[in-house]
Amino acid sequence: MAILDDLQLSRREVMATGAAVGVAAAPGMASAAPAEQPTLMKVSFTVNGQRQTLELDTRTTLLDALREHLKLTGSKKGCDHGQCGACTVIVDGRRINSCLSLAVMHEGDEVTTIEGLGGPEKLHPLQAAFVKHDGYQCGYCTPGQICSAKAVLEEIRAGVPSHVTADLTAKVEFSQAELRERMSGNICRCGAYSNIVEAVAEVAGAKA
Amino acid sequence: MRAFSYERAKSPREAAAALAADPAARFIAGGTNLLDLMKLEIETPARLIDVNGLKLDEITPTKDGGLRIGALVRNTDLAADKRVRKDYGVLSRALLAGASGQLRNKATTAGNLLQRTRCPYFYDTNMPCNKRTPGAGCSAIGGFTRTLAVLGASEACIATHPSDMAVALRVLDASVETVGPDGAERSIPIADFHRLPGETPHVETALARGELITAVTLPRPIGGVHAYRKVRDRASYAFALVSVASVIHKDGSGRVALGGVAHKPWRVEAAEAALPRGAKAVSEGLLAGARTTSQNAFKLTLAERAIGAAVTEARG
Which of A177, B84, B87, B112 has the fewest CB atoms within 10 Å, measured from its CB? Predict the structure, then answer.
């Protein structure tokens, strides 16, 4: 049983171990280039209303700061290249890909993640609507979908036009077409799109 | 990603001087393209100079009736600006046709101009690329060329410029304002800003080392019907196979520029006299000298038809 106990690692521990091995191997790989010393820097920002101060390698993305340093693992790392939207968080009221932003570039910013929108005891209306309409299968893209959707509804209210807005000078109105276009930066590999549209439309007060 | 030091620039001139003095330094603003490339070690700066604090994020009227767009104005804000939507609709349309909402919230005006090609061989570090390693050769030539250039390409590079915004700026005759390390300011017409690849495809713009973009200026509005037609493999969130930025007046005269076909936005002013006679007539001059492969020859037909659709739309 001792062997089994040794094997009872969580998936997260396995991932962390893999990452550590990667770091250990780096000096050998870097032999062709001059050794690079990581630069550490302090940065302070607010996450879900709580002030956080971290000392980070400058290479740390906002996503990795949230997940690996603050243990807010709701935001997900999908592609890590700004293509899938799983890492979407809201910074100073705007949705961004947290994987394509350096943590040290967020000094003084206010970050909202899925954990800041709501939790099991008190769901955000979008979270409740996703549950009601089955707006996911595996759930991996869901935190990004919900953060993105929250910002989309605010963008429409603020009159920000989109690619499918027919008249650039008219008032922007919510529609399924507007929602689908604006959510195109959030990929759902399970293909729950139609249910996501229904969930967000319900919260927007529109018929899907 | 390689390790780098990070600092916040205090003034445009100091930022330019710092960059000019350090070949390993790069400016960072939105970071949506640079960080992507740093993760792949296609870009390997040892020092990042963050220009976000330079207060270059306003859109202001110019004294000759145009608009001055600060280099740090985000793509979302530029597209949503009431003056741009009313008088420069082609620019709003082009911006909204590009990237995703998340990316447009971060990406800046200057960064959009300076984004690198999405040529798959530029991204594949296992393949030779003259942009990544000058003199290494071009893997795209003879490779998968469906998305690549059909106009203005060279034996060294057949990459396209990926920006939608730049195509609209080209049709609007915008200018790029810069400051150099010595504090000298200059204005570069958008037509001269991006270069054709020639024998030095790694040199993509007219900027000198250390020169920092401070703004993009638009001349006074020219009226007409503004449109940006983008043809791509998906309905949203994909780069153009072919795009057409157009401003067409009631008498059928106007301007057209193409995206997705060359190393820079493609416009031939001399060809535009034929615009009132229709898409076929204007395409003869605009697409003259095209060199295609069996995989990308469709772009010529597509360009002519996209122009045709724009002309029809403008006639109402």
Answer: A177
Collapsed DSSP state (helix, strand, coil) of residue A57: strand
Phi-psi region of B141 (alpha: psi -120 to 50; beta: other; left: phi over 0): beta
Contact B246, B272 (CB under 8 A): no
**Model-level ipTM above the cut of 0.95:** yes
Picking from A97, A117, A137, the residue at the C-terminal end of a domain is A117
Q: What is the CATH number of the domain that holds A101?
A: 3.10.20.30
Q: Which domain holds residue A47?
A: 39-117
Whichever domain contains B29, its CATH number is 3.30.43.10
| Domain encompassing residue B238 | 225-315
Query: How many domains does chain A contain in total?
Result: 2
Domain contains B154: no
| Number of C-beta neighbours around residue A66 at 10 A | 25
Partners of residue B46 in chain A, C-beta under 8 Å: 36
Greatest C-alpha distance within chain B: 58
A-chain residue closest to B100, CA distance = A185
Q: Which of B1, B5, B36 sits opposite A100 (nearest CB)?
A: B36
- Residue B133, pLDDT > 70, answer yes
Q: How far A60 CA lies from chain B's nearest CA (Å)?
A: 10
Whether residue A16 lies inside any domain: the answer is no
pLDDT digits (tens, 9 = 90+) for A112-139: 999 999 999 999 999 999 999 999 999 9
What token pair was written down for B12? 């445009």
User: pTM, whole model, 2 decimals?
Assistant: 0.93
Closest CA of chain B from A78, distance in Å: 14
pLDDT band at A190 (very low <50, low <70, confident <90, very high): very high
